[in-house]
Amino acid sequence: MSLNPQLTYVHLAENGAATQLPGGEEFWNMPEAEMERYGSGWLVSEFEFSVDWPTWEMHPNADEFVYLLSGSVEVHLEQQDGLRKVTLNGSGAVVVPRGIWHTVKVIAPSRMLHVTRGAGTQLRPA
């Protein structure tokens, strides 16, 4: 069965089970108690970006795998020794280490696949 990871997210649980979830706004507007059920394990989701991210984010419990499917972006990683910028063009990936604040600047409209553990994610304005 085919699915579109922009419209259907997949949660990969610790026990190996994969659960399909409504994506987009429907997922992000879930009641907090329901969303907490998906904080452990891994969430696989895809997003389209035509403008820079409005926030920085940080995942304290695990690394995040970010894969550029198309377009061009610059991933900004706020590390102890300063800001590191990773440019991805066409396709490519970056692993964002746990606890590292990161944001994305869009060079050209892009599609990105994210694999992350959501529990404890923190946001701040860009």
TrEMBL record:
It comes from the Bacteria. Residues 55-115 form the Cupin type-2 domain. Pfam families: Cupin_2 (PF07883). InterPro entries: Cupin_2 (IPR013096), RmlC-like_jellyroll (IPR014710), RmlC_Cupin_sf (IPR011051). This is Cupin domain. It comes from Solimicrobium silvestre.
